[in-house]
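Convert to structure. Protein one:
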Amino acid sequence: MHRVIRTQDLSDDHAQYFIYQTLRALKALHSADVIHRDLKPSNLLLNANCDLKVCDFGLARSVRTAEPSGTETGFMTEYVATRWYRAPEIMLTFKQYTKAIDVWSVGCILAEMLSGKPLFPGRDYHHQLTLILDVLGTPTLDEFYAITTRRSRDYIRALPFRKRRPFAQLFPNASALAVDFLTKTLTFDPKKRITVEDALCHPYLEAYVMIPMMSPLPLLWTPTFSSLIVAQGRH
């Protein structure tokens, strides 16, 4: 996918189909309580028929993974997801992060398909947050207090106020449905971010809504066992 985005303009039909297949793969993973944690264009494989598969599960983890003490520090690590596609809650150390981090990555990938370039190409941790806030604006009070570490809250408080930049202005050639999909996937608060299941039913993907969904995968993960899961967007 990375090479395709870099070498040609994708039609909206292509973007819809690729995002739909990515979400199908995520639905399979999330149904087994597994988070990919490293979704990006180079981890989406395409063939000449536009069939898509998700690859590279080196950072995938179960949401049930826990330390013997009962904490989840072994799972809730900051160094997940390539920086440009990394959800803000990972960097700001919310109490925990969830399947919503994969949804954020999907939004970043769609934005890149629509424009041909990464939406948040941060050079480092601080620059990444700056780019995100330049688009989403300063967090609301509810979003601010969802950040659990004082250091992160102090960092956000010290930043100048930023107004939100509408996605319709950032992507003037995108359809209204594509803009709405971006808005719902790239929501700062992970609790308010659209789920994979709801994203699959979004009007932007209406052409594919009638395709039967796969059955949920069984829960294969245990706190002491991890293995490679292969999920594909089309069965």
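Protein two, convert as well:
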Amino acid sequence: MWNKSFFIAKSAGQRAVEADMLPDQVCNGMITSHTEAWLDRYYFEKYVLEVSIATLERGGVTSRIDTYQFLDPIDVWAFPKYPGKTVILEPTMNIAEGIAEFIRENDACLREPDTWLGTWINPATQRCYLDITMISPYLDEATVQARIHSERENRAILALYNLGNHQTVYLGRESLSQE
């Protein structure tokens, strides 16, 4: 069935049409762009759910928001690049909503080279930490870098995490009880 509002909108130069208005071949790419927008949204939502589930199952994950790929468990140390941007979710909070909001607020930083979305559940408090994460192959180097980033942003980094060995090194036990 033809819809007159499509022709009015098209003649006025508007690009948006509802997907159920006309068959695909009549819309000449308008539905395609509409479909692509929905696909982008659904892929993002799928990614957020996958990160949320993996975080709950494994206690944390590291992934890229531009490729939606998870970092394999390799022998590197992960820590926050921007500790001032770290978000801490209480155990009762919706992790998926928190992750989606964190990505929206920090999109530019998360797309920088060598940065990752990092999630970690503190086993002592069950709080979920969301970070803009960087990695280093050496513990000593990671510790120095973490301290530099902590001082620069005036916020303590709780721990470094080795993705391959599943090992946590705390950087000051006094901060563990505070956060």
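Residues 30-58 form the longest helix (29 residues). The beta strands are 60-63, 77-80, 87-89, 116-121, 128-136, 159-162, 167-170.
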